[in-house]
Amino acid sequence: MKTNYLKKYIISSYILVWSLIIFVAGTASLVFHAPPVVMWVVRNLIAWSPTYLLFIGWKHFRPEETRTVFVKRCFSGKVKLLPLLCSFGLTFGISMLSLFLYSAITGTAMLSHIRFGTIALPLSLFLAFTSGPTGEELGWRGFMREEFDKKYDFLKSAVCQGLVWCFWHTLLWAVDSDFTDWRAVPYIISNIVVITCMTVLMNIFLERHNNLVYSVLLHFGFNIVYVFLDADIGFFVILTVLYLVITPLAVFIRNKLPEN
Questions:
Q1: C-alpha–C-alpha distance, residues 17 and 19, integer Å
Q2: pTM over 0.85
Q3: For residue 260, what pLDDT is reported?
Q4: In angstroms, rounded to a whole number, what is the distance separating the alpha carbons of residues 92 and 241?
Q5: Residue 12: which of 41, 46, 39, 50 has the closest Cα?
Q6: Is the pLDDT of residue 47 over 70?
Q7: What percent of the chain has pLDDT over 90?
Q8: Is 10:144 a contact under the CB 8 Å cutoff?
Q9: Burial annotation 204-241 (CB, 10 A radius, 16+ → b, else e)
Q10: For the CA atoms of the chain, what is the radius of gyration?
Q11: Across-strand partners of 114?
Q12: Local confidence band at 2 (pLDDT 50, 70, 90 cut-offs)
């Protein structure tokens, strides 16, 4: 029977991240009462778990090639400035448009929903960039994307990747969210829809450019807003609607464009 390396990786990644959240982040927070900046570093270390897992267990997931060959292929595409800016601007722009619409509907100022907190801005930007954007992409858009692409067409592969990625965050929805009442339901739905749609958008860039720098910046463009965001569930409802409009449009454009 042929070994299902993808299934082994997905199951292992879930077990690893949930264990780290419970035993490492949980201990740091509940036992040692770590300050916010330390907890942020701990979350960053946990965010890198898909990459730790991939390289430590490499022979169990991709025994037919070396790590070096794999990494070189993941960054083999030429980096072009305009697509690079678009990759960041797409997710950042959708979030800012959502915030603009949310502020207009609620009659509040956009800046009233931005909180810079107690951590210095340069450090906040650095920690945001070195969390999921740089920590997860080799695992999800590197290894997992290649494995799903072997099995399915573009859209089905991207949706499957997105669902695996979003449910990997399941435990965080319970322990790292302000929405613990009825708002948890639309918040979870928003996470599922937005993360899946974002994966589709990432794969559009990667299909044409084959360099994880694009998905890193797209991921960063999404994450950076939430480092400073202070908004109620209405923002996430608007965000979900925008992704449900923009992502099919992007797929339509992708299907009309000539292949490289």
A1: 5
A2: yes
A3: 64
A4: 15
A5: 50
A6: yes
A7: 87
A8: yes
A9: bbbbbbebbbbbbbbbbbbbbbebeeebebebbbbbbe
A10: 18
A11: 229
A12: low
pLDDT score recorded for residue 120:
83
Token pair in block for residue 41: 């570093």
Helix or strand or coil: residue 210? coil
All residues at 6 or more sequence positions from 210 whose CB lies less than 8 Å from its CB, including other chains:
73, 76, 77
- Judge contact between 49 and 19, C-beta under 8 A: no
| Best CA proximity match to 44, nearest among 160, 123, 158 | 123
Q: What is the pLDDT of residues 214-239, one digit of tens each?
A: 999 999 999 999 999 999 999 999 99
**Number of Cβ atoms within 10 Å of the Cβ of 165:** 23
Residue with tokens 């390289």: 55
> pLDDT (tens digit, 9 = 90+) per residue, 142-163?
999 999 999 999 999 999 999 9
Cβ atoms of residues 219 and 132 within 8 Å: yes
CB atoms within 10 A of CB 7: 10
* Rounded to 5°, angle at Cα 74 from 70 and 79: 150
